[in-house]
TrEMBL record:
Catalytic function, reaction form: an aromatic L-alpha-amino acid + 2-oxoglutarate = an aromatic oxo-acid + L-glutamate
Residues modified as N6-(pyridoxal phosphate)lysine: K224
An example Gene Ontology molecular-function term: histidinol-phosphate transaminase activity
Domain of life: Bacteria
Known EC number: 2.6.1.57
Keyword Transferase listed: yes
Cofactor: pyridoxal 5'-phosphate
Protein name: Aromatic amino acid aminotransferase
Function: Aminotransferase that catalyzes the conversion of aromatic amino acids and 2-oxoglutarate into corresponding aromatic oxo acids and L-glutamate.
Pfam family, one: Aminotran_1_2
Amino acid sequence: MTDAADIPVRVRPEIAALPAYKQGRQASGDAFKLSSNENPFDPLPGVAEALRAESAVNRYPDATARRLRERLAARFGVTSDEVHVAAGSVSILSQLILATAAAGDEVIYAWRSFEAYPWLTVVPGAVGVQVPLTEDARHDLPAMASAVTDRTRAIIVCTPNNPTGPVVTQAEFDDFAAQIPSDVLIILDEAYAEFVTAPGAVDGTLVLARGTHPNVVMLRTFSKAWGLAGLRIGYAVGHSRILDAARSTGIPLSVTAHAESAALASLDVETELRARVAVIAERRDRLAAGLREIGWRVPDAQGNFVWLATGDETMAAAEAFEAAGLIVRPFAGEGIRISVGEEESVGKVLRIAESIVGALP
Ligand code: PMP
């Protein structure tokens, strides 16, 4: 192959500088994969059958995922124009940013948060404005509101925050949203909403139902609680003018008929879904309580993961977990995110966490 330095094609320097997307390591053997906030359960009843029934793979899917949009619209009491479906909520994040932020515009988000936010912002040449989390790993919404300038086009609020876990409360969100100019898009990224048990947490469906902030778009996914990460399907609910703009920036036909049918089949068995979510939330609470008992300061965990602030010892701590057959997600110099997985992984995580807690500063 020609040496990279000899390729004259002009790649945008900010794109060349982007690190490659780093996926959570795949587990081998009998290791537990706790690095990607996936659902440990098999697909919900009816999903396998729905996938088998989708035999016409020689045909393109319905470009607008109309059946699923109508179903979700009925669920949330909105029109189907006010629902947008795409290949994962990360696609919708990309589309919303492309639709609002041009070169030099600003996108505000908390940091540390979902690692896609920085690169999705760099792609259109926009500037990411990172507002540090508070001491207890929560969004600092007053600081985020103060960061707004006349170049701000979008603000992302991630609740529960990936990777640290706490939610934004409804009262905090209301105060915040009231301060944001109405021409700035607020993206409420609720990828983990179904797992939230904290009273008073913000709920995008209520924000939208009140209709007081038409600049808010709620983002949800079938990847986490619904267990369809491999099929790539997520959705947004919000004003049709904003979602039409997002649709215009998306790659057409990215949502497969398989993904749409699996999502519809999942929505048919919501009772089962709720039962599974309750199991995961209980496991999470047991894990967080156990970690606190052995001396870890674990932020309020409201998603399907817990956060260990391992600081400078992060990579060594991740190795200790890995050596014990637990694939976790390290963020060098900051901490480790551990997904709530199979029941048997809980005790194992606690044992390793106890063995390393003494080595920390
Ligand atoms: N938002 C947050 C906060 C996430 O953690 C993730 C996945 N890790 C996503 C969005 C994207 O999920 P998906 O594209 O699978 O819907």
